Fold this protein.
Amino acid sequence: MFTYFVQRVLVMIPTLLVISILTFVIIQLPPGDYLSNQLQELKAQGESASAVAKIAFYREQYSLDKPMIEQYAIWMGFWPGPNGFSGLLQGDWGHSFAYDLPVSEVLGDRMLLSFVVNFSTVIFIYLVAFPIGVYSATRQYSIGDYGFTLIGYLGLATPNFLLAMVLLYYFNVYFGISIGGLMDEEYIDQPWSMDKIMSVLDHMIIPVIVIGTSGTAAMIRRLRANLLDELQKQYVTTAKAKGVPRIRALVKYPIRMSLNPFIADIGNLLPDVISGSVIVSAVLSLPTAGPMLLEALRNQDQYLAGSFLMFLALLTVIGMFISDLLLAALDPRIRLSGGATK
């Protein structure tokens, strides 16, 4: 198991490297960049030479006048950059030209809040989907099964942003409550305290439910189908014929075997939740990094957009790594080496 662990960690390194190359190339594909667009606007408005000189300084400082390969090497930290820019590998995320601040300061609490909201959503999906999926499979064609199936289809068919808009409207009209934001207004731009944490937890309930609805519905359907397939196999019938208690006959093998796809979805669930939360964050005015990413891509603020995309890629790779380890521990039939062992 330790050898498998080391192998998976080593595979993560070239995977992130390839992702970083693709991310940088995609960001560079649109013609021009943020500084070029700003320079054209300043010249059209007849701005002073100091503003133009400032843009020229940024272009030289972050090597935006260099070839793309050299820009990538400096951005990652493979090549020393001018004026002390050290790159991602050394914790330097670069400079946000739109905000005129380091990327680490621009993201700040937004990255933390994004992680908290999305991690809570994943926990919510599993805590809700598991008992409902088991219930629907063990009570097939019951009233409860039909009810949860209907709710699941509605969850799959309803876009997250539409559900957010409906809840935002009805809570405001009928209850006079604003569910927008992730904290009370008095805690915005204030240092973290216990009162601020409790305010965030209080406001996080609705966003977690909205973002996790479609993922929960899909997970319920998947677990129900897998468990039904296991319950119809011969070893379950044999266990019942031998008088094995119903709960033990259900838990010992059928649930365990049906959890394989359930756990394998961890790697896909993290990026799906994060990408699905971007529009919801914009609708509910959540101070997360999602809306900022959209604005950075629109403005071609490459260091801000690239840092967030690499953070998303890191979460995806870590999610796949966790799911592989859990699958290896859960199912002994899964081989931990590349070749078949006889």
Observations:
- The chain has 15 helices and two strands.
